[in-house]
Amino acid sequence: MQEEIKVTQLVSMMKETGALLEGHFRLTSGLHSGHYMQCALLLSVPRYAEFAGGMLAEILAPLNAEAVFAPALGGVIIGHEVARHLGLPFFFAERENGAMKLRRFPKPSGIRFLVIEDVITTGGSAMEVGKLISETGSSWVGTGCIVDRSSGKAAFPHPLHSLWQASFPNFTEEDCPLCREGKPIEKPGSR
Ligand code: ZN
């Protein structure tokens, strides 16, 4: 019950900051949707980032990790918050010539680590980070995100821990029920 209250709080924080919009949107892909999500807006309020990080840390604490890793940029703020709550060091990987690299930090070996992301859709970046850190004999013990939009399709070597599972349908213009209702369309981020 306590958890449900927290999820409700998280979703209202997302709405309040504009991280979750409801209406009629043209997405970058060209598809139409009744929802638009931009998690960076939730994390722009440090108190909300701390709240989400605390929730994730509570879920992931039993995995006894020794470090937290995240793909830049999306995972950096939330990964840092999770690490802070768990009292662990935090590192981020970033793309260089298309491949995820640990450019600014020495690569650890033989440690238990977590991978944190803001939103998981395909899970591609988080997967790359997990594989990269595992290469030198470390154990990838868990993955966490604020919002899981993968509908169970992200294939991690262990269950994905998320604060909120959300799947919003997208439509082509021809099949869009919101277009049919004559609802005006917006392009998020262009306001
Ligand atoms: Zn439409």
Notes on the protein architecture:
This protein has 191 residues and is of the alpha/beta class. Helices cover 32% and strands 29% of the residues. It has 6 helices and 9 strands. The chain has a 6-stranded mixed β-sheet with strand order 5-4-3-6-7-8, with helices on both faces. Strand 1 (20-26) and strand 2 (32-37) form a beta hairpin. It starts with a helix and ends in an 11-residue tail after the last helix. The site of zinc ion has 7 residues, from helix 6.
Task: Provide tags for this entry.
alpha/beta, binds zinc ion, 191 residues, 3-stranded antiparallel β-sheet, Rossmann fold
Question: Topology, please?
Answer:
Blueprint: H1 2-17, E1 20-26, E2 32-37, H2 39-43, H3 46-60, E3 67-71, H4 76-86, E4 90-96, E5 99-101, E6 112-120, H5 124-134, E7 139-148, E8 160-165, E9 170-171, H6 177-180
Helix pairs in contact: 3-4
The structure holds zinc ion.
Concise structural overview:
This protein has 191 residues and is of the alpha/beta class. Helix content is 32%, strand content 29%.
Number of separate strands = 9
Average pLDDT over all residues: 95
Determine the fraction of residues in helical runs and give it as a percent range.
Answer: 25-40%
Low-confidence stretches: none
Structural category is alpha/beta
Rg, alpha carbons: 18 Å
Order of helices and strands: HEEHHEHEEEHEEEH
Could you give the order of strands across the largest sheet? 5-4-3-6-7-8
